[in-house]
Amino acid sequence: MKVGITEVAGRARVSEATVSRVINRRQGVSRKTREAVEQAMADLGYERQTQGQLVAVVTELVSNPFFADVCERIESTLAPHGLKTVVCPCFAGGVQELDYLTSLAERGVAAVVFLSASNTIEGADPQAYELLRSRRIPFVGVNGQFEGGGEAPVFSTDDLLAAELAVDHLFRLGHRRIGMASGPVGNRPADRRVRGFVDALGRRGIEEAGQWVVRQSYTVEGGQSAAVALLARGATAIVAASDYMALGAIRGARRQGCEVPGDVSVVGYDGSMIMDFVDPPLTTVRQPADRLAGEAARSVLALLAHRDVPVGELLFDPELVVRASTAPPGAR
Asked: What is the DSSP pairing of strand 111-115 with strand 265-270?
């Protein structure tokens, strides 16, 4: 005999409406009740007619504390709704990403979150998105729109404002030769931060601001290399496109015989809590990890419940956190 929600409701001692809310992952059900319904379904062999319980978070930068924090916050928001988060670390836009998603789609993954993955790459192969659409698997993005359109919700930090906050801080300290250690060309957040940086300098009367930009990888080594190049051009301050790049910039400055912030000031980007404990504590532009993760997770829940979700990119304001890595020029 086929088991239906009536039998599940009787076994769990709840109403059929409550069983329906659990099945469709709607809010308004306590964790204890949800667990009782899930156990009743398992005991009776109820065949859930919705998609699986897994939500994949695809990201290249899981070793970065900021991205690990976002993953953890997504998981903690989804867990009370019976969903399990699996992190898929892979090169953004690479073959491995498609392999992950193909395998997960075959196993009934419920939804996918692209956390600074192929959604950050200009001209990325849209095959992964086409696969998910064909299987009717909802997906959302964090920090980058999807190639070919805005039919999916995306939640991003306002990179233009982030650059403005960093430049304004350094300009107020008296710096005029401000350089930027940015990520590679074709990375959407990096491109936007460069545009914001150049515009911010231009508004302050700095001509040919593009000469103060060095593009490198989002790594400590990339930040170090960029810093050496910028110091050779006479920079007294460096805006880095990530906290890791900022740490590399500090190392590069020291290897050139410069002190931070006595000879050169450094501003990072991301805002991981651990940057309060490096030497010197890092001034940085903090991304709102809690809000980005919360909105992404809530959109996943809404999409799984077949509710309408606004599509396109929603921008969140970053915050400048001033610590000890910035000072007026010549402060030593």
From this structure: unpaired
